[in-house]
């Protein structure tokens, strides 16, 4: 599922070039500029309207595109930069472009909800009819299918990427995929390859200056590095540092361009093998050698942990890694891979890796500065890819899995009976921003572990850690209202469990199956969810007992499944039994007890016993307000159910006022696309109809229908109900 463009936070503003000049790409940049603005009296060939820059990672494709963007932007052209790493970014970016080209918001809503013409056709009509010249860049399009039509290939030219029909437009793509049949004959392709020795020498001098030697010596080193920009950057950064802090006076010190070249010659024959591809080996060996030499320099300065830390980072998911949380010095020190490392030493290692251009250190600006999750380290994708294939990393994969999971173990909940005191409880809304950062690298590590193909015999406890982490990730994804994404992730995890022989009736796997059932429930796959839960509950009872917290959780989800199918009396009977058990197990004012009571109150509302439900909801709300903030997300959902009850009791004005207050809170605004807040908007529309404000009610219902179609699908019962209410309001 894809969040609407206005809430994604994806920027389409071109990134700014750094202070260093772009070397060796002048001719390519000029060629692209001529395609954008042909000289007077000439016209461009149709295929020149779509330009494809392809090559190995780190070769400067994106930097070239940035330079083109800068120059055309200075000439007054509209310039848009879309990261093509995933479909959400592409869809959100193209929607934003349509908005900037003055497409009405309601037209965008209809198109993106599938109720009108396709979003692709809408955006491209706007682009082709734009009177103002424009440049559209798809960056890092390494998965071209993301730009293809739903039932075809990119080369068909009918997807997000296509040939402009206007002389005002130019499309530029950066990618690793250099296959002509991928991009079609209607595009022009350029290989962004190695730099010439002369241009490579300029890159070295830009970074290291003249202290390491003459321009001729820099040229010799550039030739030895095969002109690979990433290798040149690594060497230049290395030599700049070596001369800035000239530690050591032995003949083995590497401070000049010639020293570096000779050291590379001595290391000839080392490097990595990647699936037996000698061409790839030849291309990347200088890159690997370059950073390995940088790591040697750091080791010579006493930072010998830099190498294993870099390898460790590569074993986490391909995403910014919150190092203040995940790189715990105590846990690192306990591993033979890293050895004794304190906070100061770890800080020096990370800073030095960043100084040598092996990682980037940054912050997540959306998080408060005091948040430990806000500080992240990111590897260059090529560095991460190559490190994972190094022989010592491949041979030590099990040891790295062990260390990664030991570090990620810090995220697990320690006391399920006291969740509010847990630092990373995914069910608590104030932890969701942290999980937004924690989930991607953790998810990658868990899936990598489950893909390893065998149970960990030396450390069987690691399997429990991995599956518990998977459960927490899934709970976070479900908590923020993305059941479709949770389903995909959980299916991958359960497939991995089957592959390595995990008993799916054991406790950790049952937890994943429970969350998978919850994902089905939230998407309206009620029959499947009920069948699966009826299999899970006896297994949990046999392992844990009928009133264990986990068994009660599955019984609650089963009751909710029954409730959503309209079997309200059956659901009420089960929920009353669950609430009584929760009183005994967790107490009358526990979070889960409150959740079960809320479900019971809903069952009573749906049966029309409004006075009884009102009393129950008022008591739940009073307890919640004593223990939780007034705008806590769960508190808002209880208030919404109470307002639904008020509406049914004929108190539409009172319900309307409270719903407006609910939807104006920061909590509701942050989760405006959450299914619970969409439900509150539906009830708001009902209140508006009851009070005669039909114009506003229609506008609200249109939004509810569109959001539910996108998130829940056309066939979900809530979507159908909203559509029925809208048609009834319009008299259709």
Automatic annotation (TrEMBL):
InterPro entries: NLR-like, P-loop_NTPase, TPR-like_helical_dom_sf
Identification of the protein by name: Tetratricopeptide repeat protein
Organism this protein belongs to: Micromonospora vulcania
Gene3D superfamilies in the cross-refs: P-loop containing nucleotide triphosphate hydrolases (3.40.50.300), Tetratricopeptide repeat domain (1.25.40.10)
Highest taxon above the source species: Bacteria
């Amino acid at each position: 599922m894809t969040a609407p463009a206005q809430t994604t936070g994806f920027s389409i503003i071109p990134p700014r070039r750094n202070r260093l000049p772009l070397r060796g790409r002048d001719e390519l940049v000029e060629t692209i500029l001529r395609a954008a603005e042909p000289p007077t009296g000439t016209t461009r060939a149709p295929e020149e309207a779509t330009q494809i820059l392809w090559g190995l990672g780190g070769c400067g494709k994106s930097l070239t595109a940035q330079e083109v963007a800068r120059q055309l932007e200075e000439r007054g052209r509209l310039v848009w930069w879309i990261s093509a790493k995933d479909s959400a970014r592409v869809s959100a970016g193209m929607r934003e472009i349509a908005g900037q080209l003055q497409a009405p918001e309601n037209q965008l809503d209809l198109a993106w909800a599938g109720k009108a013409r396709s979003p692709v056709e809408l955006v491209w009509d706007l682009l082709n009819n734009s009177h103002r010249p424009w440049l559209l860049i798809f960056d890092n399009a390494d998965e071209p299918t993301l730009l293809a039509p739903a039932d075809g290939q990119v080369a068909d030219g009918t997807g997000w990427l296509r040939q402009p029909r206007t002389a005002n437009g130019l499309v530029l793509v950066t990618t690793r995929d250099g296959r002509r049949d991928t991009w079609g004959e209607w595009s022009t392709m350029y290989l962004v390859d190695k730099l010439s020795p002369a241009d490579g020498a300029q890159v070295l001098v830009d970074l290291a200056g003249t202290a390491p030697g003459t321009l001729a010596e820099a040229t010799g080193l550039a030739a030895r590095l095969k002109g690979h920009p990433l290798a040149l950057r690594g060497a230049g950064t290395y030599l700049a540092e070596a001369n800035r802090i000239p530690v050591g006076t032995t003949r083995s010190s590497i401070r000049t361009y010639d020293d570096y070249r000779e050291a590379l010659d001595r290391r000839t024959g080392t490097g990595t093998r990647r699936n037996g591809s000698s061409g790839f080996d030849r291309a990347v060996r200088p890159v690997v050698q370059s950073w390995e030499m940088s790591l040697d320099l750091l080791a010579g300065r006493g930072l010998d942990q830099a190498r294993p830390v870099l390898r460790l980072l590569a074993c986490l998911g391909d995403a910014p890694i919150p190092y203040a949380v995940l790189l715990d010095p105590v846990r690192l020190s306990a591993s033979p891979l890293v050895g004794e490392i304190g906070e100061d030493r770890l800080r020096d290692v990370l800073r030095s890796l960043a100084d040598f251009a092996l990682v980037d250190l940054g912050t997540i600006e959306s998080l408060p500065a005091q948040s430990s999750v806000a500080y992240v380290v990111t590897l260059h994708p090529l560095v991460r890819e190559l490190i994972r294939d190094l022989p010592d990393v491949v041979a030590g994969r099990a040891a790295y899995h062990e260390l990664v999971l030991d570090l990620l173990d810090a995220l697990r909940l320690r006391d399920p009976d006291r969740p509010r005191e847990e630092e990373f409880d995914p069910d608590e809304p104030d932890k969701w921003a942290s999980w937004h950062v924690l989930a991607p690298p953790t998810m990658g590590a868990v899936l990598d572990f489950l893909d390893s193909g065998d149970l960990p015999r030396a450390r069987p406890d690691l399997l429990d850690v991995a599956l518990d982490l998977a459960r927490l990730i899934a709970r976070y994804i479900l908590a923020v209202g993305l059941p479709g994404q949770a389903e995909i992730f959980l299916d991958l995890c359960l497939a991995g469990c089957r592959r390595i022989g995990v008993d799916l009736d054991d406790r950790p796997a049952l937890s994943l199956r429970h969350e998978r059932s919850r994902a089905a429930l939230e998407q309206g796959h009620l029959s499947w969810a009920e069948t699966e839960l009826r299999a899970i509950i006896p297994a949990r009872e046999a392992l844990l007992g009928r009133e264990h917290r986990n068994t009660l959780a599955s019984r609650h989800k089963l009751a909710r499944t029954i409730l959503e199918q309209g079997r309200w009396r059956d659901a009420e009977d089960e929920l009353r039994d669950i609430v009584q058990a929760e009183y005994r197990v967790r107490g009358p004012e526990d979070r889960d007890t409150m959740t079960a009571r809320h479900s019971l109150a809903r069952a009573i509302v749906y049966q029309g016993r409004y006075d009884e439900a009102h009393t129950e909801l008022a008591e739940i709300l009073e307890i919640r307000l004593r223990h939780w903030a007034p705008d806590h997300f769960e508190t808002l959902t209880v208030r919404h159910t109470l307002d639904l009850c008020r509406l049914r009791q004929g108190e539409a004005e009172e319900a309307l006022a409270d719903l407006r207050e609910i939807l104006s809170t920061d909590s509701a605004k942050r989760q405006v696309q959450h299914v619970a807040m969409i439900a509150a908007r539906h009830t708001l529309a009902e209140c508006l109809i009851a009070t005669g404000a039909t114009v506003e009610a229609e506008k609200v219902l249109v939004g509810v229908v569109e959001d539910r179609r996108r998130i829940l699908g056309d066939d979900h019962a809530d979507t159908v109900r909203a559509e029925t209410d809208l048609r009834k309001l319009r008299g259709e």
